[in-house]
Design brief:
With about 500 residues, the protein is mostly helical. The chain has a single domain (about 10-240, about 270-500), classed as Amino acid/polyamine transporter I (Up-down Bundle), CATH 1.20.1740. Helix content is about 75%, strand content about 0%. The protein has 19 helices and no strands. The protein has helices at about 10-25, 30-65, 85-95, 100-105, 110-115, 125-135, 140-160, 170-175, 180-220, 225-270, 275-290, 295-300, 310-335, 340-350, 350-375, 390-395, 400-430, 440-460, 465-505. About 50% of the residues are buried. InterPro entries: BCCT_transptr. GO terms for molecular function: transmembrane transporter activity.
């Protein structure tokens, strides 16, 4: 297949926009950062609460769908069977949708929340810390993914549409009968999904590679700096291309399953050396409060409002991050969920990864709380998001081996996030094919690498910022258009699905 600009307009327009922005990242790095900083303040002030309400809406919608009669309908024909085992399915969706983030924040976030309780629900600071961590990593994050997966899966496997974000807006064809306006609308939606995906992905890659470099610096007592981070990124990019080149079954599934096994091994390693009863008690207590407080937490109501500064630094950023990942993670989940009922997809995506993440943060967080008590005087050992988990493991036996394994797992998680995104972006730009050409996979591997390097440079533009701060500001901006579009998508999906069920019943 030749990459003809006339036949691949979506690909070339998207690459042109990304290369144009990359030019500013490389040449006008500080000016670009300053522009992002000022615009992000405006977005947070005007649309911060909108992010919160959208998250709550997605969770409530999924609960209703799962437990209604609609939940029994399959993503596909009634005779379609799931392509992957449940373990492989969960492994792939978890590796694509969360991955390295649970290593990045495993210790730092619970400790920060414990020392700076964002809310006051009349419980101890440890419980509040875990409850708020659950909130930021739990049902809402996976609801963004699941809503997109259900909508796209419905149009893809039930209505036989192409693997494109615009397929979820096919009702527009009835509202806008003229071909050219249709093409303009659908093309704009697909370009927006591609750009949102790329920004969300490179944010994760930038954070993950910086953590790997931080871990290597901590372990080897040698500062590898910016050059070291870029070398790590290049290694991850090469591995991701090799994985996506082999496809879903031979590449992505194998690495994703490996990730889950190693993650469970690390979790068990920490758990057996912890106060197991304390961990399970804290897990149950924090989970109870999270469920009871979920709605007021979701809208920052009354005593559950941590304040605009905290919401800006944490919750708005997280919601923007999950929204940025929704296009590629949602479509990837839809792609691997054919033959499963909507109820199974919703409960599988919403509950299983969330509960697993909750127990992970409880085990590491509660263990870190105990270690801090043993310090006698806390000197900020776990404050650095990029090195906290490596310092944490210094309090356990086999620290050299465990920290090395953690770095390998970080690399592996980033590879599965990157290869999943490359695969989905290739489907987008290869005319919505479920098995995109290898030329598209190679192109997206290259462009994502270039753009990720630009983001790392942006994160080093000023002495007082890092990749995390730069990404917080950028993602709040880039996620806004897609979040507005998601509201329209939800309305159209409910309308189309309800109309189809009425047609079938009559």
């Amino acid at each position: 297949m030749k990459l003809n600009p006339k036949q691949n307009g979506l690909l070339y327009i998207s690459l042109g926009i990304l290369l144009f922005f990359s030019f500013f990242l490389y040449v006008f790095t500080i000016e670009t950062y300053n522009g992002i900083e000022s615009f992000s303040v405006y977005i947070r002030q005007r649309f911060g609460k909108f992010y919160l309400w959208l998250g709550l809406l997605c969770v409530l919608l999924l609960v209703v769908l799962a437990f209604s009669r609609w939940g029994k309908h399959r993503l596909g024909k009634d005779t379609d069977k799931p392509q992957f085992s449940r373990l492989a399915w969960i492994s792939m969706l978890y590796s694509a949708g969360m991955g390295a983030g649970i290593l990045l924040r495993a210790v730092q976030e619970p400790v920060f929340m414990m020392r700076n309780p964002p809310i006051d629900n009349q419980t101890d600071s440890g419980t509040i810390a875990l409850e708020y961590t659950f909130y930021q990593w739990g049902f809402t994050a996976w609801a963004f993914y699941a809503v997109f997966a259900i909508a796209v899966g419905y149009y893809l496997f039930v209505q036989s549409k192409k693997v494109l974000s615009s397929s979820a807006f096919s009702s527009v064809e009835r509202m806008v009968p003229s071909k050219k306006p249709q093409q303009l609308i659908f093309g704009s939606i697909d370009i927006l999904a591609i750009l949102t995906t790329v920004f969300g992905l490179v944010a994760a890659i930038g954070l993950g590679t910086t953590q790997i470099e931080g871990g290597l610096t901590h372990l080897l007592q040698e500062d590898f700096g910016l050059q070291g981070t870029i070398v790590v990124l290049l290694i991850i990019s090469i591995l991701a291309f090799l994985s996506v080149f082999r496809g879903v079954n031979k590449g992505i599934k194998v690495i994703s399953t490996w990730n889950i096994y190693i993650t469970l091994g690390l979790l068990f390693f920490v758990l057996v050396q912890s106060d197991v009863l304390s961990v399970f008690t804290q897990f149950s207590t924090a989970l109870f409060h999270y469920i009871v407080d979920f709605i007021p937490l979701s809208i920052a109501y009354g005593q559950y409002n941590p304040g605009e500064e905290f919401l800006t630094d944490w919750t708005y950023y997280y919601w923007a991050f999950w929204l940025a990942w929704a296009p590629f993670t949602g479509i990837f989940i839809a792609r691997i969920s054919k033959g499963r009922t909507m109820r199974e997809v919703i409960l599988g995506v919403l509950l299983v990864p969330s509960l697993g993440t909750f127990f992970w943060f409880t085990t590491f967080g509660q263990s870190a709380f105990t270690i801090i008590e043993n310090f006698g005087s806390y000197q900020g050992q776990f404050d650095n998001v990029f090195s906290s988990i490596f310092i944490f493991f210094e309090n356990y036996p086999f620290q050299g081996f465990i920290n090395t394994l953690t770095i390998l797992l970080l690399i592996s998680f980033l590879v599965t996030s990157l290869d999943s995104a490359i695969f989905v972006l290739s489907m987008f730009t290869d005319d919505g094919k479920q098995e995109p050409s290898k030329k598209h996979r190679l192109l997206w591997s290259i462009i994502l690498t270039i753009f990720s390097i630009g983001i790392i440079l942006l994160g080093n533009a000023k002495a007082d910022i890092n990749v995390l701060i730069a990404m917080q500001k950028l993602l709040i901006i880039t996620s806004l258009p897609f979040s507005l579009l998601m509201v329209v998508m939800i309305v159209l999906f409910i309308y189309d699905f309800r109309k189809q069920q009425q047609t079938i019943s009559t």
